[in-house]
User: Which sequence fits this backbone?
């Protein structure tokens, strides 16, 4: 399946809507914030607590992603504006969608190095695999 003319904005919107839908399907009420909302993209409610979620989406297969092995995910100073980070990897050539949802402190602790804004795919697949499809927003690693 070839997807024609998919823009970065469409990929970003799709990632936000995907995460919001999956959280709602798993019993966690979630709302998409208005475009340009500062610091986070979604608000979810779990056990009476409001959670701010930042979503970052890349459109590539795991094979393509392994070539660069990273996902740019946040501005280093902005981690205090959201509580959770959702990383979404969408393969435009097939049905594959992978997502990792983790507390912002976990994401910050697993950056590639202190100067970059990246988490390596191998880190997601090994150290952070417990957060893949974490639609219940479990905190423990």
Assistant:
């Amino acid at each position: 399946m070839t997807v024609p003319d998919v823009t970065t904005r469409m990929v970003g919107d799709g990632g936000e809507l995907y995460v919001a839908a999956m959280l709602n399907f798993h019993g966690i009420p979630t709302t998409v914030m208005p475009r340009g909302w500062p610091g986070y993209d979604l608000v979810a409610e779990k056990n009476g607590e409001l959670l701010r979620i930042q979503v970052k989406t890349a459109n590539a297969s795991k094979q393509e992603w392994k070539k660069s092995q990273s996902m740019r995910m946040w501005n280093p100073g902005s981690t205090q504006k959201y509580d959770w980070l959702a990383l979404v990897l969408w393969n435009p050539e097939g049905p594959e969608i992978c997502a990792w949802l983790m507390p912002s402190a976990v994401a910050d602790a697993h950056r590639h190095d202190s100067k970059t804004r990246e988490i390596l795919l191998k880190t997601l697949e090994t150290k952070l695999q417990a957060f893949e499809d974490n639609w219940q927003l479990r905190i423990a690693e």
